[in-house]
Structure formats: structure tokens, C-alpha cells
Design goal:
heterotrimer; A mainly alpha (308); B alpha/beta (360); C mainly alpha (360); A: 308 residues; mainly alpha; ABC transporter involved in vitamin B12 uptake, BtuC; 12 helices; 69% helix; B: 360 residues; alpha/beta; Rossmann fold; 2 domains; six-stranded parallel beta sheet; 19% strand
């Protein structure tokens, strides 16, 4: 029985973490704007099915991803209208979105179970992919893995360095004050929500077009909920979000590799590990940094109603 | 007898009588199927549905079939089966082990309806059980795996530690070892029958560990996709042909063919000769079929596989023929001794040479 | 443009009108969806809403309504405690599982003793199991400020793994031929959760649900705790000034919802489901969240909402069987119901007014 190759392990966990990174970064933006959208799972699976249908129909995975983003965004728009214009409770609306999204995806995907998706070629980045250890580990993935990381970097820059990002954060911290300053709270939030939906859709499509690749009833299998946990784990910071997704993806991949390597660890406890570790990290965050609650966007989850 | 069941069975018969339905044969036989997954799953349920379609082909207007997909086990199953009976079905196939108690309960309430439960072990006068000797198929593909592997590492994606799965692991390992004494088998327990993400990850983990032939007891095509992406890894279709991945990585497959059994049983109901029983058909009855062996397999290996198929089908060879020892070294079968059905049905040990433990 | 003006106090008319309006809108939208799927909308709506209550086999489906609604209502009542106070227990599914596991483990440890008190003790253990599981997120929130939504949710997955481990290991039926799953509790008289009045589906879990409804009603309208909960939900600062201890409230609310969810799990495993199996949980913990909101977090509302949801489930199954309506359509239907309710709910707290731009 061989040892576990760290190179292959890291390569595997980068792939495993990508759908979570995509969904989580979108939700991070939404939550930074003060919106808690629990419907990530529904948006992801809608994206998975839309992307799959379009990719199979047109033969182009790229178009599939575009469709997936559109599908996720459309569902998110529904959430946005209900919570921003009709002031509905965000928790309940998010759950309704999940339920509706799961059903919709199941219905749309009925004829597509077992169908193969057109293949997405892997990027072999010249020169870099030939590096001895880092090459196979980091530089031979499909384009979406790099897109997810680029997106995180872009969001980081947007939130930290751009004026628009500052406004978004202000809306998230104190929507009444932002409104008083003349910012269009509802519109900004709507934009963040739609962005979150598009990203979740991309994450779902990654599963159905690249990682598996196929569409089935439970293709997301809880990834949306994991993404929500990762957002909190990260303290709403993109850099930590990537780390958290890698930890989670890494544990999931590690337990399978341990089994494959013949290591005798009780399987059930291994499959529990990712979730338990997420809880432990959430706890550690609460204790280690007294300012953990301070970094929660101040208006998160509260409905905004402009008082005139 | 429990008060509830007594009253329920009374209610059942009363209902049937009040609806004016004769309790024996009708002109058109209505047959019901309860499926645990969607018919589009390309695996277990898909094959059962193919059996249903074969029944329609064989009997035409003499039968009418109804089915319900994705029925959860437990109380929902009991309700689904009951509703099928109430809507006039006289023969009902419940196609998953988890429907066992539900089928037993409903069978007790409707003694004039016939029930067939797949892979179960509880029977009644109006409840038969049926299963297929998948281990025969695994013996064949195990032989092929032993010949095809270059790294001498074979992977098995197992679902749950139940006898049927352990039979499969043992049968494939024994036959791989027979043709290739250096071969090792790696088992990953996925604890699911169908979870593409998990199966894909398990396959990748195995491939990362140097496995170049993957056998699976789970139902999705995810391992095939993972193998295709890796290149140079062999896989076998499970439950259905998975021909979309031929000629590589899928070089052959085990197909569950329920049609012969279903047609036989429907004919028995129509003839009025149906009785309960425990059916365990294999290659001889046409219930286990090896799908097309592709050209990626060298001709001698293909011939060896086909010879084994012929021998098993003719009843000349039984995959569990001694001498076989258990993993701890104690004897299981003596030289030439053939395992009895009872020994197989309760199999809870690995054979000698397997490393690792069965999760308890 | 239309502007929303907050009402001084929630409108009485709309509190009752909103759910009715939502149901009507869902029926219309649902009918459109069924038509798009190629099914006659009127027949579909009738099959879903009318047939389970008054159709051909209604005497069977009516009792199934209570069986389905019982756990939903029981869990939803517990959830309403927390939701009203802004304490979001999303992990009721996990507490449901742990209640079933604790209770079943206790009962099976005493098998095959013959004493009806075992059932009583199992009930207590069931509540304890759910309570303990809910205390984890509760204590973490009170002591460390950790978000209870995520912790309780992660614990659902942990509970599912524990369930699988129990079903294949410690709680596995020794006489079960190696298959996963515990002994059948509903067939053991000492532990069975039976119907009180045969043929009505009213087992002890349903009784517990009704008791919970009455208890919650009294608590919310008469008891100081109910007042504290409502106050905390509407204005945490006012509650703090009013002397409400927020930590104590979290513990009480989470504990109650955990205990009730655990009870629901116990009644289910000793009754309709019958045994601890890998797929024992079917999502009641999540559906109950929907029921709680549909019922506007009010005990009587939850009772009605639970029955309505049960109706859509049972009716949906009938439609699936007789019309071939895909199960997913019912999920969409339920999602739409919640969407419409949430959309129309705005009218309860806000009044739409026409306002021309620019005028203050």
C-alpha cells in the first residue's frame, strides 16, 4: 500500500474546493451588502442543470457556464425582489428558494440523467506546468479552477480598494446611514444578490460539467450549505475563504485517499470529519477573535425599509 | 395479530369488495412497480424499468403497468404500495431491499394480491423474494481485471458492508488473484448506492494511489468519467451497460437483466400457477449478462472471459469453488467443495489475501 | 410610484387573508405549470387537493394525512419558539435523527422484554436525544456567540453519519442476515407506537403534536415566557431593557425545539418508519421550517399549515401514480406556496400607497 502523494492530494483538493469557492465568494459579496441568502443550494443546482442542458444542446461547455450563471442569477433575482421590494423575511425566503430551486432543477433535468456533457479541456499552462512538484499540483487544471481563484482576487480588490466596494460595505454595515448618505441601498443589494446567484450557478455548473461530469438529482449534495459555512468561517474575507474551502475540500479528499491507501481508520468517522472541523473552526473563530462579531456586517439579515 | 393490522386487512378487503372488484383474475392484469430511484438513473432502477418494458413487449394488451419512482423507504413506501394495490394492481414488484418491512405489511393486508420483493429475505404466501447472482458476473470481470492491470492494483468502490457486496469483493478478488497472484485490491466504502460526487472522488483517490482497474458496486457513471479523464484506467459498467464510455475506459459491464424473471412471473400469474418462493437466478437464467467486451481487451483475455461465462452459464463452474480460506486463514471451502446458497447469503468475511477489514 | 408605508400594527384582515391569497395564487400558478407539463390542470389540482380527502380511497389517504402531518406539526411548533425570538434552529433534522437514535438504542438494549413502560422511557430518551443535540449550537451561541444556523446545520450531516454507523453497527439487527437496519420497533409490542383509534392514523406522535399546539398556544398568549419570546423577536433592545435574559432564552428555545424534534423522530421510528435504517430521515426537519413559516409561527396556523403540507404530499403521490406527474413538480408547488405567502405577507405589515416623486 503506497503512501499518499501530497502533490496529487493538493491537486485533487483544488478541484474539490472549486464549486464551493465559487458559491461562497458570491454569497460573501451578498452578505457584505447585508443580505443573508440561504438559497445557495437552490441556485447552485439550478445553475448545474441550466449549464448542463445548454452545454449538451450547443456542444459548448463555455456557453453552458454562461447559461448556468444566468440561471442562478434569475433565481437570485426572485429572492431579491421578495426580500428587497416586498420586505420578506430573508431566512424563510432563502429556504423557499432552496426548495423551489431543487424542484425546478429536478424537473428540468428529467431527460438529462445519464447523458454525457461535452468535455472541457484542461489548461496546460506552458512552462509553469512542467515544474517538478508545483507543475502537476497547481498548473494543470481546467480553466474554471483558475477563474474561481481570480474571482476571489477580484472581489478582494473590489471590496478593499474600490469606491464601489466601499459603498457596498457601508450598505452592509449600516443600511440606514448609507441611505441617509444618498446611496441606493435596494439597488446595491439587488446587484450583490444577483452576483451571488450567478456565482452559485457557476459553482453548480462546475459540478455537472467538469467535476463529475453529469447531471443527477442530488448533484450538489449539500455543497451550498458548506459554502455558507465557509463564508462565516472566512470572517467575510476572500483570502480566508479560499483557505477554508481548501481545508474542507482537503478533508473530504483526504478521507477517501486514506481508505484507498489502506489506512485503517473507521470510515464513518472520517466522513464526519469535514463537518466537525467546520464547527470547530467556527467555534475557534468566535473565541480567538473577540472582534469576530464585529466583522459580521452590521445589517446582515435585517430588512431595509426606507423611512421617509 | 396486532389490532391495527387486523382492522386494516379487514378494511382492505372491505374496500376491495365495496369497489366491486373481483378478487381473482381480471381481463387485463395490472402490474405495479415501486422504484427507489428515477428511471433515468442509468443504473439499478433503469434496468428494472427495462424489465417492465420487456413485460409490456411480451404480453401486449393483456397487461397494464404502473410505476412510481423515487419512493423513499419507510412509511412512504408502505403508502405507495398500498395505493398501488387500491388502484387495482394484482402483482407488485418492490425493487429495493429497504422496502422489505413495508412490503411485508401490505402483503399481510391484501392476501389476494401478489408481491415480489427484490433482494429481500422475508416471504409470505403472497410474497416472494428474488435476487440475481451478481457474484457470477464479478468473477468474470475479476478475471479480466487481474489480466488487464499493469500496476497490480485493483480498486473496488463498495457501497455498504452487506453480504451481496462482500460476495462481489470476494468473487472479483479471488478470480483476479487466480490469474495474477501479485494483484492487490483496494476497497473504498462509499456508504451510498448512488452519489456521483463521492464516487468520482473515490475513483480519483484510487487512481492517485496507483489503481488502474476500477470495479464498482455503486450505480453512477462518475467513476467511468474519472477514469476517462485519467486515461489508461479500466472500468466496468455496473448494473447497466454504460456503453457511452466504451471502448475505453469501460471494457465490459455487468448488466442486471430482470426481464426473464419478470416475464416468467407474469406468465405464472396469468396461468394461475404463481406461488411464493426465493429466486436467485444468475447467468444460467439470463439474469446476469456481461455486456460487450471491447477491443481494448486483448483477444486471449476476451476468450478467457467468454469461456468462463459459458462455463458458469452451463452450470459447470461455480465462482466459489474450494479450496478457499477465510481472511484469518481458517478454511472456508475444501478442495472442490462448492459454496451453498446459505453460506453466500450470510457472507460476512473477506477471503484470504485481502487486506483491510470489513467495517462493522 | 408605489411606496410601502409601515402600518402601526399588523393588519388583522391580512393576517388571515395572506395565507388564503397565497393558496389561491399557488393553485393558479401550479395549474399553469401542470398544463405546461402536459397534464390537465383541473384534474391535477383535484387529484392533489380533493382526492386525498374525498376521493375513491380517501378512507386510506385521510389517515395517511395525520401520519404525515404529525411530525411536521410537532417539529414546527418547537421551531416557532426560536423563530419568533430570532433564534434560527435550522438543524431540526439532526435533532430528529438523534432523538430516534437515543430512543431506539434504549429500547433495543432492553429487547425482548415485555413491558409497556419501555415505550414511555423511549419517549423520554427521544426528547433527551434531540435536546442534547440542540444544546450544542445553543451553548456555543450563548457562551461564544457562534452562529447557531451554521452549527446546527453542520450537525445535521454529523447526525446522518451517526445514523448510518448505528444502522450498520451497534444497532444492527443480529437476526437480519447481515443487512443494515435495526430490529423493527413497530412490531415489538413493548415499544410500538400504535394508533389510538385504529384506521385514523392517530398514533401517539399525532397526539403529542396536538398537545404541543395547545401548549404553545397557552404559552404564547398567557405565559411570561411567551411574552419574552415575542418581545425579543420584535425588539431585542426593548427585551433587554425589560429584563429578559437573552442567553436563557436561547437555551430554552433551542432546547424545546430540539426536544420536540427528537420526540417526532422517536414516534416515527417506533411507528410509521419502524426501524433505524440508513435512510430513516426523509427531510421532516427541513419541511417543518416551511410549515412554521406557512403557519406564521402561530400554533393554530402551524396546525393548519402542517395539514396542508401533508395534503400536498399525499395528493402529490396520488398525482404521481395516476397522472404520471413528476415528484419534482410537487416540490416546486410547495416552494411556490411559500414564495407567494412571503410575497403577500408584505401587506400584513405595510400598506402600499401611491406617491408622486419628489414630494416628501
Amino acid at each position: 500500500m503506497g503512501g499518499i502523494s501530497p502533490v496529487l492530494l493538493i491537486a485533487a483538493l483544488m478541484v474539490s474546493a472549486t464549486p464551493i469557492i465559487l458559491a461562497a465568494i458570491g454569497e460573501l459579496v451578498a452578505e457584505r451588502a447585508g443580505v443573508l441568502n440561504l438559497g445557495v443550494e437552490g441556485m447552485m443546482i439550478t445553475g448545474a442543470v441550466c449549464g448542463f442542458i445548454v452545454a449538451v444542446g450547443t456542444g459548448s461547455p463555455a456557453l453552458g457556464f454562461v447559461a448556468a450563471a444566468a440561471g442562478g442569477a434569475a433565481l437570485a433575482l426572485l429572492f431579491g425582489i421578495l426580500t428587497q421590494f416586498l420586505l420578506s423575511n430573508q431566512v424563510a425566503t432563502g429556504l423557499a428558494l432552496t426548495l423551489f430551486g431543487l424542484g425546478l432543477a429536478s424537473l428540468l433535468g428529467q431527460g438529462y440523467v445519464g447523458v454525457s456533457a461535452p468535455a472541457t479541456p484542461k489548461l496546460d499552462i506552458p512552462l509553469l506546468s512542467d515544474l517538478p512538484v508545483l507543475g502537476p499540483m497547481l498548473f494543470r487544471h481546467d480553466p474554471v479552477v483558475y477563474l474561481a481563484l481570480a474571482l476571489c482576487a477580484a472581489v478582494w480588490w473590489f471590496l478593499r480598494r474600490s469606491r464601489a466596494g466601499l459603498i457596498l460595505r457601508a450598505v452592509g454595515e449600516n443600511h440606514d446611514a448609507a441611505h441617509a448618505l444618498g446611496y441606493r441601498v435596494v439597488l446595491i443589494r439587488l446587484g450583490a444578490i444577483v452576483f451571488g446567484g450567478a456565482c452559485a450557478g457557476l459553482g453548480g455548473a462546475y459540478l455537472s460539467l467538469i467535476r463529475l461530469p453529469s447531471y443527477t438529482e442530488d448533484v450538489t449534495a449539500g455543497a451550498g450549505w458548506i459554502a455558507l459555512a465557509i463564508v462565516v468561517f472566512s470572517g467575510w474575507r476572500p483570502g480566508w475563504l479560499v483557505f477554508g474551502a481548501y481545508v474542507f475540500g482537503g478533508i473530504s479528499v483526504l478521507q477517501l485517499n486514506l481508505q484507498a491507501a489502506g489506512v485503517q481508520i473507521p470510515v464513518e468517522y472520517l466522513s464526519m470529519a469535514p463537518y466537525v472541523i467546520t464547527i470547530l473552526v467556527l467555534v475557534a473563530l468566535s473565541t480567538a477573535r473577540a472582534s469576530a462579531t464585529l466583522s459580521t456586517p452590521g445589517s446582515l439579515g435585517k430588512p431595509f425599509h426606507a423611512a421617509r | 395479530m396486532k389490532r391495527r393490522t387486523l382492522l386494516m386487512s379487514g378494511a382492505g378487503t372491505a374496500l376491495m369488495a365495496s369497489l366491486g372488484m373481483p378478487l381473482r383474475a381480471q381481463d387485463v392484469l395490472k402490474i405495479g412497480f415501486i422504484y427507489v430511484g428515477p428511471i433515468g438513473d442509468g443504473g439499478w432502477t433503469y434496468q428494472h424499468d427495462q424489465g417492465r418494458l420487456a413485460v409490456i413487449d411480451a404480453f401486449g394488451a393483456a397487461v397494464e403497468t404502473i410505476y412510481q419512482e423515487t419512493v423513499p423507504e419507510g412509511a412512504d413506501a408502505e403508502r405507495a404500495i398500498t395505493q398501488m394495490v387500491l388502484s387495482g394492481a394484482k402483482l407488485i414488484f418492490t425493487t429495493s431491499f429497504g422496502y422489505m418491512d413495508a412490503t411485508v405489511n401490505v402483503a399481510a393486508q391484501f392476501p389476494d394480491v401478489m408481491f415480489e420483493h427484490a433482494t429481500g429475505y422475508k416471504t409470505a404466501d403472497n410474497l416472494a423474494v428474488y435476487d440475481a447472482r451478481f457474484y457470477e458476473g464479478r468473477a468474470v470481470i475479476g478475471t479480466m481485471a487481474g489480466r488487464l492491470t499493469r500496476t497490480n492494483k485493483i480498486g473496488y468502490i463498495a457501497s455498504f458492508p452487506i453480504p451481496e457486496v462482500i460476495q462481489g469483493i470476494n468473487a472479483s478478488f479471488l478470480h483476479a488473484r487466480k490469474v495474477n497472484p501479485a494483484v492487490e485490491m483496494v476497497v473504498i466504502w462509499a456508504y451510498t448506492w448512488f452519489d456521483p460526487a463521492k464516487e468520482a472522488d473515490a475513483a480519483k483517490a484510487m487512481i492517485d494511489q496507483g489503481v488502474d482497474v476500477i470495479l464498482q458496486h455503486t450505480d453512477s457513471t462518475a467513476p467511468q468519467s474519472a477514469a476517462q479523464a485519467a486515461g489508461n484506467v479500466y472500468t466496468f459498467g455496473q448494473a447497466s451497460d454504460m456503453a457511452g464510455f466504451a471502448p475505453m475506459p469501460r471494457v465490459a459491464s455487468i448488466i442486471d437483466n430482470w426481464a426473464p424473471y419478470y416475464i416468467k412471473r407474469v406468465q405464472a400469474v396469468i396461468d394461475g400457477t404463481w406461488t411464493t418462493g426465493r429466486s436467485w437466478g444468475g447467468m444460467a437464467e439470463g439474469e446476469v449478462v456481461i455486456g460487450q467486451i471491447t477491443d481494448a481487451v486483448p483477444a486471449e483475455v476476451k476468450a478467457e472471459a467468454e469461456a468462463m461465462i459459458a462455463a458458469i452459464t452451463a452450470g459447470e463452474y461455480h465462482p466459489f469453488t474450494g479450496p478457499i480460506n477465510k481472511q484469518d486463514g481458517s478454511p472456508f471451502l475444501a478442495e472442490g467443495e462448492v459454496a451453498t446458497d446459505e453460506q453466500l447469503v450470510g457472507m460476512n468475511f473477506y477471503v484470504e489475501g485481502m487486506t483491510g477489514d470489513i467495517p462493522s | 410610484m408605489i411606496v410601502l408605508e409601515k402600518r402601526p400594527s399588523p393588519s388583522q384582515v391580512w393576517t388571515i387573508g395572506t395565507p388564503l391569497l397565497a393558496i389561491i395564487a399557488t393553485i393558479i400558478a401550479g395549474g399553469l405549470m401542470f398544463a405546461l407539463l402536459g397534464k390537465d390542470p383541473l384534474v391535477a389540482i383535484r387529484t392533489i387537493f380533493w382526492d386525498p380527502l374525498f376521493g375513491d380511497f380517501a378512507s386510506y389517504s385521510r389517515q395517511q394525512l395525520l401520519i404525515k402531518a404529525g411530525p411536521l406539526i410537532l417539529i414546527a411548533i418547537g421551531l416557532s419558539f426560536g423563530f419568533r425570538a430570532g433564534i434560527w434552529n435550522i438543524g431540526a433534522e439532526g435533532q430528529y435523527i438523534m432523538g430516534a437514535v437515543f430512543g431506539a438504542a434504549f429500547g433495543l438494549a432492553l429487547f425482548p422484554a415485555d413491558n409497556r413502560l419501555i415505550f414511555v422511557a423511549m419517549i423520554l430518551f427521544g426528547a433527551l436525544g434531540g435536546l442534547v443535540w440542540a444544546m450544542i449550537p445553543a451553548l456555543l451561541r450563548v457562551k461564544l456567540g457562534t452562529n447557531e444556523i451554521l452549527v446546527s446545520l453542520m450537525l445535521v450531516y454529523v447526525a446522518e453519519v451517526i445514523l448510518a454507523k448505528m444502522a450498520t453497527g451497534p444497532l444492527k439487527n443480529p437476526e437480519g442476515m447481515g443487512f443494515p437496519g435495526s430490529r423493527n420497533l413497530s412490531q415489538w409490542p413493548s415499544a410500538a407506537n400504535r394508533e389510538l383509534i385504529a384506521g385514523t392514523g392517530m398514533h401517539w406522535g399525532v397526539i403529542a403534536a396536538l398537545v404541543a399546539v395547545i401548549g404553545a398556544y397557552v404559552l404564547f398568549s398567557r405565559h411570561r415566557l411567551g411574552f419574552d419570546i415575542r418581545l425579543t423577536g420584535q425588539s431585542p433592545r426593548a427585551a433587554a431593557f425589560g429584563g429578559v435574559n437573552p442567553g436563557r432564552l436561547v437555551l430554552i428555545c433551542m432546547g424545546t425545539s430540539g426536544a420536540l424534534a427528537g420526540l417526532a423522530g422517536l414516534f416515527e421510528v417506533a411507528g410509521p418508519a419502524g426501524q433505524i435504517s440508513i435512510d430513516f430521515n426523509v427531510g421532516y426537519g427541513f419541511t417543518a421550517i416551511i410549515v412554521a413559516f406557512l403557519g406564521r409561527l402561530h400554533p393554530v396556523g402551524i396546525l393548519l399549515a402542517g395539514l396542508l403540507m401533508a395534503l400536498t404530499y399525499i395528493g402529490g403521490e396520488l398525482a404521481s401514480l395516476s397522472l404520471g406527474l413528476p415528484a419534482a413538480a410537487i416540490q416546486i408547488f410547495q416552494g411556490m406556496l411559500l414564495f407567494f405567502l412571503l410575497a403577500f405577507d408584505v401587506l400584513t405589515n405595510y400598506r402600499p400607497r401611491w406617491k408622486s416623486r419628489g414630494v416628501a
